[in-house]
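Archive transcription. Copying these from loose printouts into the bound notebook so they stop getting lost. Printout 1 of 2:
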Amino acid sequence: MTFANRLKFERHEDSFLVLERENEAGGLCRSKIVGGAPFDIGGGHILDVRRPCVTEYLFQFLPEKEWDRYVRDSRIELRSGTISHPIEANIWQMPIDEQVEYLESIAKAGCNSGAPMPEKFVDWIYWKLGEKIAAAYMIPYNKKMFGDQLDSLGTYWLEKLPSVSFKETLLSCLTRKAHGRQPGHAEYFYPKQYGYGEVWLRIAKTLGDNIRYGQKICAINFDTNTVTTADGSKYQAEKIITTIPWAEFKEIDGMPEDLRADIKKLKHTAVQTRYFPENVDTDSQWTYFPSPDLPYHRICYRHTVHNYWDGYWTETNATRVEGELEDGVTRFLNDYAYPLNTVEKPQIMARLLKWCHTRNVFGLGRWGEHQHYNSDLTVERAMALVECV
């Protein structure tokens, strides 16, 4: 949506089409009205405040007065109780004896004893946070998120996670307040009257006849720069911007075999979101649940965003969805929820995107680049790409 809008109104280019698989724009950021209020079908999506160029751009379509600004309040449900996120900055909320155990564990972690940083994610957890946090939260939670793919993840993407040193953790316990760099979305915007999908619907409206809905792409030909839809329609272009998962191209012509083999190595997870009408007694906007006894890994609460909205939704890795659901249950299955940051992925995507650029095909966004981008970063990258192509 961002790339197309900027192309049309800044570059004054009108000879293009956006081919959208669904009947409305927004992808994972779409919202539906469920129980009289918005339900973000792809999970909790919000607008980080840290990129002013992005917020100013989006406020053109959904003005700032139509958003509320929040200070993040997210929590973790541990067996011993609930504490604020991130865990290492909020150990001070635990009983004293537990604080001592966690601090001792962190002090013994590899990063504090001079051990080299490991290359795999699971090893990094123990190296960075110690055995106590690993066992109580990080390992069980990430197993629920990523399933049996956990051991294949690398460490190059960990800038997304908060970074709190032992010194800052100790300082937090002594002063009884969080210290250290907080996670993303420490402050964020969310629409006052709408779900997060509203802003993308408004941008889509600006495109007029330049967008076509119900166009499921199933094939791409790099020799002719042509894409083919499921109904056999073909579209040829000078340049192609692809935002869909690479695995969704069931046929790829004109690409070297080794790159096609690489695409098959890209991994991702699917997530189900499920709506519940009742409220939960919490002030948190969302809570993480590492317990393996619960199928879901996160709950997002609507009444803490707006007190006149009721209900909440759970997010569950599709492999953990249990049995058949009764009639009347509202749920959405997102087949492509999170790209997995496997050890070999950076090399795969570097080779793939570099070669595609030589054919005037450009991957963009979470799936076009197979990166765990939030929407604000995707918008920023789309704005930059307009200037390059």
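Printout 2 of 2:
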Amino acid sequence: MKRTLSLRRVLSRGLIAIQIVVIISYTLLAAVPFLLAVASQQGLDDGVVDDIVRSVQRIEDRSFYMSPTPALAHVVETYPNFWFILIDADGNVIKQGNVPTPISLFPQNLTHVSSANFSDFGDPRSPFAVVRTRNSSYGRLWVMTGGGPSLGFNVITKAFGNPMFIGLMVLLSGATMLTIPPLIRRSLAGVEQVAREAALVDIGQSDVRLPYDRVPTELIPLVRAFNEALDRLDSGIVRQRRFLADAAHELRTPIAILQTRLESLPDGPEKRQLQRDSARLGGMANELLDLHRMALSPDAFETVDLVDLAAQVTADLAPLAIDAGNDIEFVAPEKPVEVKGDASALSRAVANLIHNAMAHGGPEVDIRVTVEEDGRIGVSDNGPGVDLEHREEIFWPFHRLSQSPHGAGLGLSLVRDIIKRHGGKITVTTAPQGGALFEISLPVIKA
């Protein structure tokens, strides 16, 4: 799975990388003139002083002798003019190579110098010399040396290895990681608010528009384009609803005329079939009008007792179910289950589910209507049920799983719109008796 792009992570890493590059570049630019300035004054790499100090050993009479380290041995072998003189606070001296006469005669003078650079020591082959002090396990040591390795670009390596440089890098990186993500998160708070507003956009709330406040300037064109797209969709939805309403109104008159004329025909199979077809057309027109009323009517909800409502709908449809050879049962708690809603719309939703059970449950179906204390209304049957892969599409408008002459494929879509308008949901599962179980869940009024 491809990893999603994180703006916070990209910006944080980018800023840290930029800081590191800037610091390294600055160090490189600063090291070059520093190297030239030091080379003109010092000329020698004073790192050899540490090799000299590490090679010194003291014997019992506190005098010194040399045990050259590999690094010092390499310097001696490479630079034939290399020399040094070392003295401690007690005046113990050790020297090697062609030490200049003034220093060789008066080595104690070195103890008065902590650090010095000599650029012209009188020897054209090795005009540079340095004096450095070091603290060792033998006490403070003074070293003067010349003729050794000259100062090179390894000063840059030393600069990068300096603890202050490393500490600065760690400090800046840590400060960036601690401060940049919160700053970015605060800057993107408006984007997260826009995302929450976008989640509210729905077919039933098409008037929602995304806010521009707190949105970064760079994202305002995207938000504006999204809102303009919503405007176009909203306009298309209004036109579609108006078309459906106009079509339904226009159909009702010829359907009523057709049904009146059918009544005058002599009885027979063809008349009954035509009456069923005209009833189907009338039902389709009424359902289209119901959808239109649902879209236009404001939410004027009142307290509704689901027990009374479901009981009344079941009682009204019981004769129709019994005439068709079906059994219908109603089970509910004794105390009221109250919700806020439109009683007529909710009655229409429950009636549609019972009609759906009678139409698609099969011959002599057993229908069970239940009400639960938590605001659930269930309508189940012992018919063939609804396959798992079809449990979402049966709620699509005009979608029908079979070529049954009953209905127009709008009933379940209308039920879902009604329940959604009431802040609830409808699901379809397998009933305990093996058929379909349509269950409405509505938010109850808390006592």
